[in-house]
Predict the structure.
Amino acid sequence: MALFAKAPKLKEHLQQCPDLMIAEKRYRDHLDDASHRLGGDHPDTITAVNTLALLLFRSRKLDEAEHLYRRSLLANTRRLGEDHQDTLAALNNLAVVLKKQQKLDEAEKLYRRALAGQERRLGPQHPDTLESVSNLAELLKKSKKKKESERFFRRAMLGRDIQLGGNHPVR
């Protein structure tokens, strides 16, 4: 699942407001307002958390992004359960940040949890599951786990071939 999947308006907003400091202040204010008015576990508050986390990630403020993605993961798990799509997206987003911070062992555990949840929820050939397979393969490659990485890359390619057909140009 792509980092922009849950925050499509952020990309649009950043094009209109290229000054990241101004955008960050706006999103922090929005998060504070949502937290006070709606509570920490309200869906709109969690959306604000994710949007600010994405902005911070894009601004390379990785420690703050990590903190917010952990907050999102806890809230989504508590409110929606382990296998809800929003919880699985939160797992993936946190893993992306941890990978960027070189916290590869923890990122791997989260990618594996996200993949297991996608397989249970959506099945092994669903596009979101195959994206989780690819994410894990990339991390394993970065972690120098070549054989396991190759196995997951092959699985992702085979799944995409089944979905798209062997002659599809994206293949």
